[in-house]
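Support request from a user on the community tier.

User writes: "When I paste my structure tokens into the form, the page sometimes reloads and wipes my input. The last time it worked, I copied everything first. Here is what I submitted, just in case something in the input itself triggers the reload:"
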């Protein structure tokens, strides 16, 4: 076997949380990075690249350079990603590939959000954007996340689009929205049990399936079938950081004891616009990325000891579990953090918390762990497999090229205007904070195979309560497209 010097390993992790004071996202990223680097002078001096996950909270144009300056680092390169919850795992895969190729030895990956602070009142003087230097180079795909037709139909909020996906799963299972919601309560309750034991969880409390699924004053319906308790919690102050190095660099810095190995990783992208997907109740790119990751490592799902499936909304969990052949009640569990609704959903950075937590778990318990991550609307996917022991043949990237070409070719056209009959392929009912129905968007299929996003006629909204229209024929009228139920 060749030298193991170029094996990529995660040697340090850090997480941070702020529940009371007012902080900036960079404060939290700095805290997490300092926790990872604390007492590791040789490791700190060896950092060559600082990669920062896109930050939604106020920051300057060079958050990676600002973070490096705060930490006293002198990296050769700094960079920041575009929007996407896939970014943390993708950055780890990217670092692992560069380390294997000998392009870099030590990479710090960090990210954070301070949305609670941003809405808590006037920030501390140091809590706003900083830095006056050149912007960090930006990595990733920065296309508009939805088409003009989807935008005109009000389809931009993630909860509305994920709820559309969920309607397909409910219909396919023969469940009403209410029945499906009860089933989702049973799926997600174990996530709360994990969050209850995590020191950095935003909601460290166990909740019953009924507490998650019953509609109450404290658990209002947001978009059928999702109540508030099943939605990612964005209003958090959380940060995370990991340090990825070559095994040789870890040895030089004296941090190889307890290093966790990067075994494999892969990325794949679903049809970009949700309405252009031939089946909004599937995620073939998620399946491709997860499968390719396991195949590259020469292992199977039965040999994986722990999972963290991206969990912004329940359908993301369901589709990832289905892709991997996992039952919702698999004894190994589907999360190591508690998931975005309960651990917290700090913008694009949640999965860096998942990676950090998975690394610490493997460090103490051994075995392997798989992390899946996604961006936008089940659009951009990344997966990574980690192990307490070295992989048999070094780190390997998964090959998704064939799957990607097939997915790209599967896109259907999106109609910007249409009249006449169409069959609903996905639907939801949106409610406001007072429980009043405000919208009932659908994606419908025309006779020519194109899909069209449409909104319910205003005077029909009261009759939409609790209705899943998937499979129903509607009559489309005018532009922007609206519909009336006809069958």
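"...and here is what came back when it finally went through:"
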């Amino acid at each position: 076997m060749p030298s193991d010097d170029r094996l990529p390993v995660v040697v340090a992790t850090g997480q941070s949380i702020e529940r009371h004071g007012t902080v900036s996202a960079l404060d939290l990223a700095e805290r997490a990075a300092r926790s990872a680097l604390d007492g590791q002078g040789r490791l700190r001096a060896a950092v060559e690249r600082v990669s920062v996950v896109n930050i939604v909270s106020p920051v300057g144009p060079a958050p990676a350079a600002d973070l490096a300056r705060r930490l006293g680092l002198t990296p050769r390169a700094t960079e920041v990603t575009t929007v996407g919850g896939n970014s943390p795992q993708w950055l780890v895969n990217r670092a692992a590939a560069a380390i294997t190729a000998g392009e870099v030895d030590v990479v710090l990956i960090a990210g954070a959000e301070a949305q609670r602070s941003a809405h808590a009142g006037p920030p501390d003087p140091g809590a706003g954007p900083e830095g006056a230097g050149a912007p960090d180079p930006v990595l990733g795909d920065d296309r508009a996340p939805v088409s003009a037709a989807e935008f005109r139909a009000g389809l931009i909020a993630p909860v509305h689009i994920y709820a559309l996906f969920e309607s397909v799963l409910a219909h396919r299972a023969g469940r009403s929205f209410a029945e499906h919601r009860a089933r989702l309560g049973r799926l997600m309750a174990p996530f709360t049990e994990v969050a209850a034991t995590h020191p950095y969880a935003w909601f460290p409390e166990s909740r019953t399936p009924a507490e998650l699924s019953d509609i109450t004053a404290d658990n209002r319906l947001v978009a059928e079938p999702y109540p508030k308790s099943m939605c990612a919690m964005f209003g958090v102050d959380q940060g995370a950081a990991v340090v990825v190095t070559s095994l040789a660099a870890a040895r030089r810095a004296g941090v190889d004891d307890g290093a966790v190995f990067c075994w494999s990783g892969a990325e794949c992208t679903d049809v970009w616009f949700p309405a252009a997907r031939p089946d909004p109740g599937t995620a073939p790119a998620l399946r491709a990325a997860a499968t390719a990751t396991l195949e590259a490592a020469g292992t199977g799902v039965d040999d994986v000891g722990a999972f963290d499936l991206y969990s912004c909304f329940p359908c993301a969990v369901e589709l990832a579990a289905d892709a991997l052949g996992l039952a919702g009640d698999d004894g190994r569990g589907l999360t190591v953090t508690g998931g975005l609704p309960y651990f917290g959903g700090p913008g694009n950075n949640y999965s860096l918390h998942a990676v950090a937590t998975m690394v610490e778990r493997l460090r103490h318990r051994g075995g392997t762990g798989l992390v899946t991550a996604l961006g936008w609307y089940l659009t951009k996917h990344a997966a990574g497999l980690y192990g307490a022991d070295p992989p048999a043949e070094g780190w390997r990237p998964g090959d998704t090229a064939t799957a990607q070409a097939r997915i790209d070719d599967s896109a259907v056209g999106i109609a910007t205007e249409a009249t006449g009959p169409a069959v609903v392929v996905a639907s939801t009912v949106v409610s406001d904070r007072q429980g009043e129905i405000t919208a009932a968007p659908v994606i419908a299929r025309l006779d020519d195979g194109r899909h069209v996003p449409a909104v319910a006629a205003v005077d029909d909204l009261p009759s939409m309560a609790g209705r899943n229209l998937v499979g129903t024929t509607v009559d489309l009228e005018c532009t922007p497209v609206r519909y009336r139920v006809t069958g």
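Agent notes: The reload is a front-end session timeout and is unrelated to the input. The CA atoms of residues 432 and 438 lie 6 Å apart. Residues 124-128 have pLDDT under 50 and may be disordered. Escalated to web team.
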